[in-house]
Design brief:
Number of helices: 13
Shape: globular
Oligomer: single chain
Strand content: 15-25%
Mean pLDDT: 95
Strand order of the largest sheet: 1-3-2-14-13-12-11
C-alpha cells in the first residue's frame, strides 16, 4: 500500500484519487504533484519511495532530477535578465559572445537560441559524457561549430546543448552561470527548492532515477537521421546517468535540475499571474508575455512532432498543458512536467523517480492534468 501525504483542497479530491491510482496502475514508485493558484496552494501531495527496493520513503522535501523540465527554469532566468535590462530577446548572441558568430551563426538572436532555432542541437563529431560535464569546453566547441541547418529556418530540439549555450550566454551578459543565477535568485531570493545539479549538502534528500524497461532511441525514432542522432544520442544518454556523482555535480541547465513539485508549481503560478512570489518580483507581465510568445511553430526536426516554442518555454500547442492555449512550461524525459496557465493563474507540476517509456504524453501526467482541469474549469 502506498501512503499519500500532504494537502489537497476538498474540491480537488478526485486529483488525489488519480495520483494514488498512478501508483497502483501506472508504475509510480515515488512522486509528488502540486497545484498553486495565484500563489495559493490547492494541492501539495507526495507518496511512495526514493528507491527501487521501496525502503526509503519519499517525503515532503524530496528532490529528484527533472531532466528537460529544467529548461523552463533556464527560460525563467532569461526572462528575469531581460526584465532587468541585462539583454533583450532580439539582441544578437554575438553582442555578448563574438566567437559565436562564425559558420553562418552571426545573425542568431537570443530568442532564436532559446527556441531551438540555432542549428546547434548537438555535436558534429563524437562526444562522451565527460564532454557535457565540462560546460565551458562544450560551449566553446559549439560556438565554433557549423550549424546543422540555416539558423532561423526551423526548430530542432537542443536536448542537451540548449543549456550549454544558454549558460555561457547568460554568464557573458550578466556575469553568472545559470546554476549560480538559480541559486542566488530562485533559491535564496525567492525561497524555491530548485537547483541546477544537486549540491552535496542536499544529497541526502535526492531520489535516484529509476529507468523504464529497455527504452532505446530507436523505439521512438525507428530511423533516426544525423540531426536526431546528434541531439539525442551523441553522447549516448541513458537514465542511470542521472544517478552518477559527476552528473549531480555538473552544470547542465537543460537536464540536471533538481526540484520539488511544490516549488515548480509555485514558480509557474507566479509566472502565470502577477509575476511575483510573496511580493518579490520575478519579471513583469510584459516580459513574461515576450518570453511565452511563439517564436517558431511546426514539426520539430529532432522530435518529429508539431511543436510551438517560446523563448525557452514549450507552448501548449497540443493540449498537453490543459485546456488553455496560452499555457506554457516544459516537460522532462520520463514524465516530469511543470507549467503555468495565465487564463486561470494555475501553476501545476509533477515530479517522479520512475521514468515512463513514452517520449511524450506520459499517462500519469495526462490523467493528472485532466483531473485538475475537470475541476478548475468549472
Amino acid at each position: 500500500m502506498i501512503r499519500v501525504e500532504g494537502y489537497c483542497d476538498d474540491r480537488f479530491a478526485p486529483v488525489k484519487d488519480v495520483f494514488e491510482e498512478n501508483f497502483k496502475s501506472h508504475g509510480d514508485v515515488g512522486a509528488s504533484v502540486a497545484v498553486f493558484r495565484r500563489g495559493e496552494p490547492l494541492i501539495d501531495l507526495w507518496g511512495g519511495h526514493l528507491d527501487a527496493d521501496r525502503d526509503e520513503p519519499w517525503t515532503k522535501d524530496t528532490l529528484v532530477n527533472i531532466w528537460s523540465t529544467t529548461k523552463g527554469i533556464t527560460a525563467t532566468c532569461f526572462a528575469m535578465a531581460v526584465d532587468r535590462g541585462v539583454l533583450a530577446y532580439e539582441d544578437k548572441v554575438t553582442e555578448y559572445w563574438p566567437e559565436f558568430g562564425v559558420a553562418g551563426k552571426d545573425n542568431v538572436t537570443v530568442a532564436m537560441l532559446l527556441s531551438h532555432q540555432a542549428g546547434l542541437c548537438g555535436f558534429r563529431d563524437p562526444a562522451a559524457l565527460e564532454d557535457i560535464f565540462d560546460n565551458d569546453a562544450a560551449a566553446e566547441r559549439l560556438a565554433a561549430a557549423e550549424p546543422f541547418w540555416t539558423p532561423g529556418t526551423q526548430s530542432g530540439y537542443h536536448a542537451v546543448t540548449m543549456g550549454v549555450l544558454a549558460s555561457r550566454l547568460l554568464q557573458l551578459a550578466e556575469g553568472r552561470t545559470i546554476a549560480q543565477f538559480v541559486d542566488d535568485e530562485l533559491r535564496q531570493g525567492l525561497g524555491l527548492d530548485i537547483f541546477i545539479g544537486a549540491p552535496g549538502s542536499e544529497r541526502s534528500r535526492v531520489s535516484d532515477i529509476l529507468a523504464p524497461a529497455d527504452v532505446e532511441l530507436d523505439d521512438h525514432l525507428p530511423t533516426p537521421n544525423a540531426v536526431q542522432i546528434a541531439a539525442l544520442a551523441n553522447p549516448p544518454m541513458e537514465p542511470a546517468i542521472a544517478n552518477l556523482p559527476e552528473w549531480r555535480t555538473a552544470e547542465i541547465p537543460s537536464g540536471n535540475g533538481h526540484a520539488t513539485a511544490r516549488s515548480l508549481a509555485k514558480l509557474y503560478s507566479a509566472l502565470a499571474s502577477d509575476g511575483a512570489i510573496e511580493g518579490r518580483s520575478i519579471a513583469s507581465n510584459e516580459t513574461i508575455k515576450q518570453a511565452t510568445s511563439p517564436q517558431i511553430e511546426g514539426v520539430d526536426a529532432v522530435l518529429s512532432i508539431p511543436t510551438s516554442w517560446g523563448c525557452g518555454f514549450m507552448l501548449n500547442s497540443d493540449g498537453l498543458y490543459g485546456t488553455s492555449p496560452g499555457a506554457f512550461g516544459h516537460s522532462g524525459w520520463g514524465g516530469s512536467f511543470a507549467f503555468g496557465d495565465p487564463d486561470t493563474g494555475l501553476g501545476i507540476a509533477y515530479t517522479m523517480n520512475h521514468m515512463g517509456a513514452e517520449l511524450a504524453g506520459d499517462p500519469r501526467g495526462i490523467s493528472l492534468v485532466q483531473a485538475i482541469y475537470s475541476i478548475a474549469a468549472r
